[in-house]
């Protein structure tokens, strides 16, 4: 029969969960995503019945009803979420913001290459910046920067011509992290403004350089998404 949105912990945490084991987001957002899937499969009448149970407005087209029910469920789950124990915080946050080759309009066939690898090391206990790492990277597929890229990033042709290629810079990053005992003595997480830095730019760069995707970058905090979830705002 048709799957119904019962909005219960039993349903969202049960064996039928479709959340991927590779999804590193907070479990509560997995629950929300799974229930959103049930809501999407509900008929207009089913949506109205469920909204009535929660004493919510039942008028509107189907898409409006779905959005209303999703927003209600998300708000309820976030309110139930227990505060994070301070002892469970990461010791350090590594804030990353790559610069990459680009052209005006970024045509679909253009291949982006990382040309700057910067990290800011934030101590979560003191909220102080303890250290930084910053190196430029020499692009290989499109070694000549476009005028648009130079203007946008402030990185000149002379700078990248003198820089190391990406495999060497990545090794320098790993050594820098090792010296600061990240992942051994201290817990840490990478943090980016959006998902593109890790899921697109770093992923593409590792394929270009024919090297393995680094383990430290398989899990990161998307501050754009965290901000939007906390303040209930759109962060496209």
From TrEMBL:
<dbReference type="GO" id="GO:0005737">
    <property type="term" value="C:cytoplasm"/>
</dbReference>
<keyword id="KW-0694">RNA-binding</keyword>
<dbReference type="InterPro" id="IPR036397">
    <property type="entry name" value="RNaseH_sf"/>
</dbReference>
<dbReference type="InterPro" id="IPR047201">
    <property type="entry name" value="ERI-1_3'hExo-like"/>
</dbReference>
<keyword id="KW-0378">Hydrolase</keyword>
<keyword id="KW-0597">Phosphoprotein</keyword>
<dbReference type="GO" id="GO:0003723">
    <property type="term" value="F:RNA binding"/>
</dbReference>
<dbReference type="Pfam" id="PF00929">
    <property type="entry name" value="RNase_T"/>
</dbReference>
<keyword id="KW-0460">Magnesium</keyword>
<dbReference type="InterPro" id="IPR036361">
    <property type="entry name" value="SAP_dom_sf"/>
</dbReference>
<keyword id="KW-0479">Metal-binding</keyword>
<feature type="domain" description="SAP">
    <location>
        <begin position="39"/>
        <end position="73"/>
    </location>
</feature>
<dbReference type="GO" id="GO:0005730">
    <property type="term" value="C:nucleolus"/>
</dbReference>
<dbReference type="InterPro" id="IPR013520">
    <property type="entry name" value="Ribonucl_H"/>
</dbReference>
<dbReference type="InterPro" id="IPR051274">
    <property type="entry name" value="3-5_Exoribonuclease"/>
</dbReference>
<keyword id="KW-0698">rRNA processing</keyword>
<keyword id="KW-0963">Cytoplasm</keyword>
<protein>
    <recommendedName>
        <fullName>3'-5' exoribonuclease 1</fullName>
        <ecNumber>3.1.13.1</ecNumber>
    </recommendedName>
</protein>
<feature type="compositionally biased region" description="Polar residues">
    <location>
        <begin position="10"/>
        <end position="22"/>
    </location>
</feature>
<keyword id="KW-0540">Nuclease</keyword>
<dbReference type="GO" id="GO:0006364">
    <property type="term" value="P:rRNA processing"/>
</dbReference>
<keyword id="KW-0539">Nucleus</keyword>
<dbReference type="GO" id="GO:0046872">
    <property type="term" value="F:metal ion binding"/>
</dbReference>
<dbReference type="GO" id="GO:0031047">
    <property type="term" value="P:regulatory ncRNA-mediated gene silencing"/>
</dbReference>
<dbReference type="Pfam" id="PF02037">
    <property type="entry name" value="SAP"/>
</dbReference>
<dbReference type="GO" id="GO:0008859">
    <property type="term" value="F:exoribonuclease II activity"/>
</dbReference>
<keyword id="KW-0269">Exonuclease</keyword>
<dbReference type="InterPro" id="IPR012337">
    <property type="entry name" value="RNaseH-like_sf"/>
</dbReference>
<dbReference type="InterPro" id="IPR003034">
    <property type="entry name" value="SAP_dom"/>
</dbReference>
<feature type="region of interest" description="Disordered">
    <location>
        <begin position="1"/>
        <end position="22"/>
    </location>
</feature>
<keyword id="KW-0943">RNA-mediated gene silencing</keyword>
